[in-house]
Amino acid sequence: MSRSAVLACVAVATVAVIGRYPEALSELTDTARANALLSFADREIAGGNAVIPDQQAMYEARARIPVDASYEVAVGVPVKGWSSLTADYARGYTTYFLLPRRPVVGAPWVICFNCDRKRYRGDVVWKDVEGVSIIRRSG
Length: 139
Hints:
single chain, alpha/beta, 5-stranded mixed beta sheet, 4 helices, 45% helix, elongated
């Protein structure tokens, strides 16, 4: 009796796999094609596309802030063009993307997501139309 039950389970599983295989393979092919169409920036930024309003901001920050330097992330009031995730998750994503650089309050660099730039003495070295800017503090 137990052998019959095992054989029946194996048979049902085999039929299910054979029946589902073509559809699963088609789905995987579609996913692979969609991934192949992504640019390098889309692949590298990945989940940050849902958080960061401008990919270029992350590349500019990584290019300008030295690897051994620290930075501060300041997030202000959300603006048009931001996703609902930007205000809450911009700090976390920036920390991930800019590793090994570390976020530190009062750091010489500030990544400003529509923050009050007047609070930070220094030069705006880069800004975009989405309210993101990079500030190099002076003194």
